Amino acid sequence: MSVAPQPRLSFEDWLAMERVAADQRSEYVGGEVFGMAGGTEEHNLIVLNVGAELRNQLKDKPCRVYPSDMKVRIASDDVAAYPDVMVICGERQFYDDRRDVVTNPTLIVEVLSDSSEAYDRGDKFRHYRNLPSLQAYLLLSQYRIQAELFLRQPDGTWSLSSYQDPSESIPLRVVDAELSLAEVYDKVELSR
Question: Is-contact 179 55, C-beta < 8 A?
Answer without folding.
Answer: no
